[in-house]
Amino acid sequence: MIDDFGMSAKKILIVDDSKVVLYALSMLLQNNGYVVVTAEDGSQGVNAARTERPDLILLDVSFPSQVGFDGGVAWDGFLIMDWLKRMDQSHSAPVIIITAGDPFEYQQKAQAAGVVGIFQKPIDNDQLLMTIQETLGDVPVTQI
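User: That's the sequence. What structure does it adopt?
Assistant: Structure tokens below.
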């Protein structure tokens, strides 16, 4: 997708089991010029990363225990991230964690995994956009 300035719009993959979160973040990001791809679980997220090659990934940490991979191990954000970092299509995409839990609980593990930010739900949209723009090197267009 090409934006109004002839530049290719950046693609963001959102992986979250909440349809409300997927919708809200999709609208926020689309309204700010990003192409959005969504996935409701780890399997969909890995497949979407493989086919869509996102520029950045917003990743929930916690998924319901019934959301598993082929009936086996339940996905969590760090397992998904491990898969994504091993794939050529997404290994260099920066990851921002979104969580309903206490972000400090994940701080050390997230830093070790190279996460660029952690946001607690409900998400501060302005702060999230600023982090995304800084991470992707985007300069927000100011209204004249």
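Residues 35 and 144 are 24 Å apart (CA to CA).
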